[in-house]
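ARCHIVE CARD
SHELF: 3
SLOT: left
DATA:
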Amino acid sequence: MLCEAPEPIADLHYLDHAAISPLRPAAVEAMVGMAHDLGNPFSVHSVGRRARCHLEECREEIAELLHALPTEVIFVGSGTEANNIALQGTALARSQQRILISSIEHPSVTETAAHIAATSSRTVEKLPVSDTGMIHMDALQESLDTGQDPLVVAVHHANNEIGSIQPIQRIAELTAEKGIPFHIDAVQALGHIPVSFAHPGFTTMSFASQKFGGPTGIGILLARRGAPLVAPFKGGSQERELRPGTQNLLGVLGMTAALREAVDNQQAEEKRLAELRRKLISGIHAIVPQAVVNGPAETEQNDTRTVLPNIVSVSFPGCDGDGLVMFLDGKDISVSMGSACTEGVAEPSDILLATGMSEQQARSTIRLSMGYTTSEENIDAFLGVLPQVVERAHRASLD
């Protein structure tokens, strides 16, 4: 084989949970337990009926965990696919011309919105954000008051690079008042802060299994019954015809087990990770005083958290982010520059630039993200090598 023999994640200091969180043992157990008893949930024989029973039990459990109805749970292939179905499905169902998104959305939202605009003569309007990545609510209100309702408003629950948490309840109140569909990308939020589909102003919401310790290749779209959605592709009646095709039952089983564990432990994990985040930030500032931590400060407004407890975006002036990632990898520490969907792209992050950051600062930024496997040992290991890594990256940027 051409691939190098990997070190198990457990043997590394893995600080890239926002890209993918290691598979939880509960998910492995759930999948292995059904691996030799797998049928097509749409077959009418006993094996198929048994598979259908497992599928619907998972749907009911997920609905309970996310405060939704079982009929609102749609199994999809990924968070990206969920965002595509939500936005393209709405575009097929409604005739309005404006697509309203924040300026710091994930590529699966920004690129889908751009595609819809390019192929249907619509326009994309991006809501500005503050330097900490928070949507300017007055700009949203102004855009909604133009007299021309948007096709859809799409805002993520929490940002995947800087961790800013948007006031989705307030946004839902504004959109619901005008009957505008509201899509929420909740991929990075689930498992780290409370997430609920209970608000009647939420139209659709997307999730990705691998972000909370489930398997890859499976995700969730929550779609309100009666939501204006037309399937963007055809092929079968599965999943309310919004995602036709044979369901990935093993993936659903693993995802459900991981979700149950993540939700049950969410409150304790939020507190634990927030403490690790504070230790990480204070350690960085003590070692590299000129380092800049991006995103909202860790404060709570009216008992509402404004930044995810597991993400730290930090800029190291005079260093190149790619170099920092590479040098840290040489020390068995895994971090990233941002979204794995744009990793390896030479251009600076659009998300960071949208907050008003200069290209130079954006290029000097790395993201550290924690999860259920993260320990103080991992944080200590990162801080222990940080001085030499920053010095080496600084020297490399001068060459």
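SLOT: right
DATA:
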Amino acid sequence: MKEFKLSFCLSDSEYFTALRLAVGGVCAAADLDIDASEDFKVSVTESCLILKGCGYGSAVITLSAGDGLSAEIRGEDAGTLSGGENEFSLALISALVSSCEIEKCGEAIGRITLKV
């Protein structure tokens, strides 16, 4: 299994563009088709937005390619954590990937794991 890990600040929207480009590169290396790649990029980006809304200052994303492609998105540098309104985002993500698992830290989501 091959891993690609990156960490970035959630407060700067320019980093989200860089994140989508990096995830797209890993999708290409994992031989995902264009539709699956777009769905995965949206899901990873939306997961980061969820963590930002929950009060995290940064995120660590670990992409793993082997038997399919997976991403673990973990919030870091927590400020005041809150549950937030995440139902729509989680429904969107669940519709786009094969598997979406969440792990909570109190009321707030602290980790999201995606699989294609």
